[in-house]
Amino acid sequence: MVVVKIGGSLQSTQYIKKWIHEIKLNRNTSFLLVFGGGSYAEKIRKDQIARRYHDQEAHKRAIYAMRDFTKDYLNELRDFVTINKLSSIKKNYKKRKLLVWMPSVDEVNSFDIPLNWDATSDSIALEIAKKTNSPLLVVKSVKFNCKNYINNFFLKDNVLDKYFTKEYMRYSQKISLVSRGNFYKLNKICKDFLNNTNY
Fold it and tell me: pTM of the prediction?
């Protein structure tokens, strides 16, 4: 199974539908989709500054933002099974699965990540990849110039959240950062995940 994190910057673009379509076409791999917070999360950032509430409250609201973003695309995800808890994923790899994760505050709070803006949906997706022992594909709007997809990248500031940037090297998961327009490379990336051992 591959965990695919859909960045919030893709919200209101046609790229999400293109990625979903490409995932459906890739019939040899199971996928778990994780959506970011998009404009919903940005609104919370601004609201927190204006109303001065605690980071933990903002963190909780940001998880609701991820839920809202996910719900926006449920009509496009009719072929996917919605997973409310990671523990409900059945370990039956004989059958291909298309899954979408609906986050909850309780489950995210059980993850080993900071409960503030240092760890956003990027780190949540990284933790999900760890818990499901799956490679992670992070789709962003920025361009990456990597010839090799697997864990071969230099993280510039603000590409991923602070916790991810600081901690990802200690995770054993294979990780690929991909620009939103490279949906057509999904099959190659999945093959790289399967075949590449130098990561």
Answer: 0.90
Domain assignment of residue 61, given as a range: 2-195
pLDDT digits (tens, 9 = 90+) for 16-60: 999 999 999 998 899 999 999 999 999 999 999 999 999 999 999
Alpha-carbon gap, residue 125 to 139, rounded angstroms: 11
Parts of the chain with a pLDDT under 70: 90-94, 144-157, 196-199
CATH of the domain at 137: 3.40.1160.10
Residue 169 identity (one-letter amino acid): M
Which H or E run contains 190?
helix 186-195
DSSP state letters, 10-69: GTTSSHHHHHHHHHHH-TTS-EEEEE--HHHHHHHHHHHHHH---HHHHHHHHHHHHHHH
